[in-house]
What we know:
Rrf2 family transcriptional regulator
Amino acid sequence: MPSDNRLSRMLHVLIHMDQHEGALTSAAVARMLQTNPVVVRRTMAGLREAGYVQSEKGHGGGWTLARGLEQITLLDVYRSLGEPPVFSLGLAGDSPECLIEQAVNDALEAELREARQRLMARFGAITLAGLARDFATRRCRPGGAPEPSL
């Protein structure tokens, strides 16, 4: 199963947007992510609907932040992406009448639910401003290269 990297990619884009003067076009974001502008627009649509970004059409248009990074958490972005699965583990369903399968599924389901709840709580506590500060710290370290400009 391929991993879903949309959350990581959108966090990256949002921090770039904060550090970029003016709007970023879908084409510029697509070049950065090595993808198609249509994919960018489709993915950014959820962020726009949630009120984290805004877009302007036409010459000089593009994507801009609608809120400051301190007002956006990892959980916010995760939810705007449709809450993709965070675990690739699944429950067996081949023999629902099997008591062993039932016991295994009950144990796994409870633990996976608790792990997801903890992860979502942690996502809610991490702001994009915190990630941007971490980037700034890394950038200032010896050997820390600046991010390429868009």
